[in-house]
Specification:
- By secondary structure, this protein is mainly α.
- It is 58% helix and 0% strand.
- It is built from 15 helices and no strands.
- Helix 6 (139-156) runs parallel beside helix 14.
- The two termini are 34 Å apart.
């Protein structure tokens, strides 16, 4: 177990963890909430297709800040077991692009945020997967705070977001400056099928009627269609009700994966005796760090490796013709760096405040931030009824976050 759980020079870890003041934990919570609620803004207006290429670039950008942090921390021991958390997060994150296509960023973030919150809070508060239960100064206040955050999510279900439907998407055209050129929103490697009636055939439209997607396996050319319209994903072609239902279900499942992604790190911290025996604190700390950020590099490496694995499987399934949108690369990099900083702040908050406090605050906060973007920037939430519902949900969220913070 030792050889799998960790490897590296234990001497690089400090002899005793430095205890940060509680206000640092709350600052980390606010920073994480703002960045988690905003990190998809750079990519919102760009075509992402099925999201697999976007996630690959996103995860590469996520990994880079962890390399810098790992060096700043003095290259602490690498724990491969912590990579499991990265796998869990990346698996949940695969659903993000379809969720946004189905129910929008604001509603998606609110739902998966609460699912994430309840999962992470329960595993931390009561202990799960071999983790120790976390004591609280005022458990009753904590329970009421979590309940209010949960109620806020139920209220959000009443919101009817304005998401561009298939007919509107089909009418979308590009500016005149793109005329005469291959549109940058078209896939870099456009997929084609020899059977024009196949459900897997994808039509990518271009301004240049002489352009085609290349010869099919039958020797014929796929006929271009005028209009300059990009392909629609599977979820964008669903009827409105089915699309909303699919978005809600994926948000809940995604939140469960997000809520368990810190479990491997906490398990390592809580169960070091099984690798090193019943020893005193000081010698054990040389092997097992109690500082959460010492596990960030291993966690983020798991994210990167899982993303590469999923993209490789995707390329095999697509017969080496993945849908790649080159214009999404820079937005994905910006989004990834924002997320990386937010998650590092999350690690710090977990260390200072414990999961039972940090999870409700950080996972309810991004929904508030994303909803504000949805109202003022993307216009996804419109109308007096929706705004009143959103305001009520905000009140419950803020009250719940305050109670969870005071329960520490």
């Amino acid at each position: 177990m030792d050889s799998f759980a960790s490897f590296g020079n234990s001497a690089t870890t400090t002899e005793a963890p430095q205890t940060l003041p509680q206000y640092v934990g709350y600052i980390a919570c606010v920073l994480a909430a703002i960045l988690f609620g905003s990190n998809f803004i750079p990519v919102k207006k760009f075509e992402t297709g099925d999201g697999l290429f976007f996630q690959l670039v996103l995860c590469m950008a996520i990994w880079l800040p962890s390399v810098v942090l790992h060096a700043i921390q003095g290259f602490p021991r690498f724990w491969p077991l912590a990579m499991l958390g990265g796998f869990l997060w990346c698996t949940g994150n695969i659903m993000v692009v379809p969720i946004i296509q189905c129910i929008g960023m604001a509603m998606g973030l609110l739902i998966w945020g609460v699912s994430n919150m309840l999962t992470g809070w329960a595993t931390g508060r009561f202990g799960a997967f071999g983790m120790d239960p976390e004591p609280l100064g005022n458990p009753t206040l904590n329970y009421f705070g979590v309940a209010l955050c949960f109620i806020s999510a139920l209220i959000v279900f009443l919101i009817k977001p304005h998401i561009e439907n298939v007919d509107q998407t089909a009418e979308r055209t590009y500016s005149e400056k793109d005329a005469g050129f291959i549109n940058e929103r078209d896939p870099l490697i456009p997929p084609f099928s020899g059977n024009s009636h196949s459900s897997t055939a994808v039509k990518v439209r271009s301004y240049d009627s002489t352009l085609s997607q290349g010869p099919s396996t039958s020797g014929e050319h796929n006929s271009p269609v005028e209009g300059g319209v990009t392909e629609l994903s599977f979820f964008q072609r669903l009827p409105p009700f089915q699309r909303k239902l699919a978005g809600i279900i994926m948000s809940i499942v995604s939140g469960v994966f997000y809520g368990t992604n810190f479990a491997p790190v906490i398990y390592i911290k809580d169960n070091y005796e099984q690798w090193y025996g019943n020893c005193t604190v000081s010698p054990c700390v040389e092997h097992v760090s109690k500082q959460d950020i010492d596990y960030v590099f291993a966690h983020f490496t798991g994210i990167l490796c899982t993303s590469i694995l999923y993209f490789t499987i995707y390329c095999i399934v697509k017969k080496n013709r993945p849908v790649v949108y080159p214009r999404v690369m820079l937005p994905a990099i910006i989004s990834g760096v924002m997320w990386s900083i937010a998650d590092i702040s999350f690690f710090m908050a977990n260390e200072v405040l414990d999961e039972s406090v940090s999870f409700p605050i950080i996972n309810a906060g991004p929904g508030v931030v994303a909803s504000l973007w949805g109202v003022f920037l993307f216009k996804e939430i419109r109308g007096k009824r929706n705004l009143v519902i959103l305001a009520i949900a905000f009140c419950f969220t803020m009250a719940g976050c305050l109670m969870c913070g005071l329960s520490k």
